[in-house]
Amino acid sequence: xxxxxxxxxxxxxxxxxxxxxxxxxxxxxxxxxxxxxxxxxxxxxxxxxxxxxxxxxxxxxxxxxxxxxxxxxxxxxxxxxxxxxxxxxxxxxxxxxxxxxxxxxxxxxxxxxxxxxxxxxxxxxxxxxxxxxxxxxxxxxxxxxxxxxxxxxxxxxxxxxxxxxxxxxxxxxxxxxxxxxxxxxxxxxxxxxxxxxxxxxxxxxxxxxxxxxxxxxxxxxxxxxxxxxxxxxxxxxxxxxxxxxxxxxxxxxxxxxxxxxxxxxxxxxxxxxxxxxxxxxxxxxxxxxxxxxxxxxxxxxxxxxxxxxxxxxxxxxxxxxxxxxxxxxxxxxxxxxxxxxxxxxxxxxxxxxxxxxxxxxxxxxxxxxxxxxxxxxxxxxxxxxxxxxxxxxxxxxxxxxxx
Amino acid sequence: xxxxxxxxxxxxxxxxxxxxxxxxxxxxxxxxxxxxxxxxxxxxxxxxxxxxxxxxxxxxxxxxxxxxxxxxxxxxxxxxxxxxxxxxxxxxxxxxxxxxxxxxxxxxxxxxxxxxxxxxxxxxxxxxxxxxxxxxxxxxxxxxxxxxxxxxxxxxxxxxxxxxxxxxxxxxxxxxxxxxxxxxxxxxxxxxxxxxxxxxxxxxxxxxxxxxxxxxxxxxxxxxxxxxx
Lengths: 403, 229
Known about the structure:
The structure holds two protein chains of two kinds. By secondary structure, chain A is α+β, with helices and mostly antiparallel strands. Helix content of chain A is 54%, strand content 20%. Chain A has two domains: 193 residues, no CATH class; 181 residues, no CATH class. The N terminus of chain B is likely disordered. Helix content of chain B is 33%, strand content 26%.
């Protein structure tokens, strides 16, 4: 405790210099916390979007994910309703949604376009997908209508000059290889924020799709869990209990999430490294000047019995105090930035390939704050070690003669 | 102690030599000096500048090493000691008083005097007792909380003496301790040093230019060109 008190007094010896180092440390720590907090927000948002889109755990026929299909639904899953009922009864399961993936042509009579569609349960699917799907007009699908309804991507609707209430025709290949068509009514227009998907997307009642494709199979069963953290355990148990099925997690299918995470990890990792180097330089500069000014004092303390390690320890404590205080100030700055962003509602521009922006938010993570604090303090201690080790080992007579 | 057993001197130098290189020139600072200083003895080292006084003090105080010759502190041979052992010996057995006082400016008078005891790992209660006793003995018991910069030169040197003697060392090294003081204060300081060295049984080796100081010393050694005269 006494050594810490002496270190504190030495920190106050040249207040302006210590304050400068503290300010640089604070800004660097805040930059790390804010940028990493933003990355965490992006990860959380993308994780949520991915999990809501595919479900936490996806079950399919064994060759569904790897094998190509010669005809639609060749690798479809039979007996889906019973399996869905069994899965829905398991603890921790919020919903089990069957889906049929299909594609074909969509026409307004004058003009046709390629679509990529999903047959879904109208009453449940829109609820679990949540805010990921934004309605541009109209309503979600309703169940049990006489004429099948569709919800389509806004850009596809624009291409076909369709709006809610318009009649269109879906044309697709059946499981037997022949062509089949069904007339549908546009119920709503949506965007998922990705232009390329909005140009192709069609969602309709799963029963209508099965009728169109002449099948009672489904492509996949999407299991939605109450906790995303339970995904791996649930998937492992399902794999063990149902080895005849292919089981994937949302992460296995979240290629965009994984690409963004890999990019951000590198980007913000480099930024954090640069910030740490800046802290190292600032601390080295500050403590090097202190060491130079106090060389004679170091000689005196060595003469009266302080060891080189003891001298280094004193400077390390000074570095830790400046680094620690700078980290605390940086945390306060980052906290202020988080609060400001919550109330400011700043929107980020759409990322490449996307058509909608997203709110700029920064996540608070105790783990991140602890790791950053420890990192900055460790770098400060390292700087102190580097600059004081040589002076502490200088011959005492030379140190005492230092002017 | 066995009656009649020889008491080891506080410090013993045997034919020590030391040379320095200054530019292209080799300066022979000490040319085979031998010296014994007994416990409680105050020895003055006099001589002109460059005569080797400081070098001799540095060798006695274990902050420099001789090129040749042997050293002992309280009977402990120094040859072959590691840097860690030398540090420990200085910490336990040697006190220093410098011409420019060399107090730590951000530490209070109390903290400066306490520092050697902290290095020794003394308990807090013991530190308090010894520091207060040492400061009272040098007449600064009322100034414990003051910073060195607020003290006069004489007071600062008293603090330095208290710092040197608080750990009851075997040997006190004082390099021109009165060099920055007026005559009256210098006389007080050298007398205090003598009293404390005698009281505590510490050997003291004092380098001084001031011939008037020598009358307070038990023995006066004169160095000229690295040799004892």
